Amino acid sequence: MKQYIYNKQNGLWYELWGDYYIPCLDLPAEKEERSIGVWGRRHLRYIREHKKALYTSLLTSGKLQSYLADVEEQAQELFDRLMKQRAEREGITETLKADNQMEWVQRMNALRSAVIETVNAEVIFV
To answer: By three-state DSSP, how is residue 110 classified?
Structure first.
């Protein structure tokens, strides 16, 4: 049996693996390399488990990396903006940090947890 065969009907090459011919398919290369941080990985895990059709479509089209990088940027921008706005609204300032560090840490941790939940609900788990 030949190692490679060409099918004129669908225009694909096939490679012999054991007793079967498997199509020789290559995923399209992604054009850009952008980093994927914690938000992108969290969204990847979510779509892999709960939105399998979207995940498969993005993976096979070669757009998964750029999609996750976009989600990462969007989530990080929202996180930064909400942290700044809510810290100002709740009076968590640098003077509080200088006067009472433990209270500042406690309030910032509580604020950070609340903002993470908001970003998860609005960007990641959608």
So the answer is: helix
Distance CA 63, CA 56 (A): 10
Distance CA 66, CA 44 (A): 12
Amino acid at 20: Y
Query: Nearest 5°: phi and psi at 9?
Result: -65, -45
Enumerate the domain spans of the chain: 31-124
pTM of the model: 0.74
Model confidence pLDDT, tens digit, residues 57-83: 999 888 999 999 999 999 999 999 999
Nearest to 45, CA basis, from 36, 7, 87, 17? 36
- Does residue 111 contact residue 86 with C-beta atoms inside 8 Å? yes
**Contact (CB, 8 A) for 70 and 42:** no
23 DSSP assignment? E
SS3 75: helix
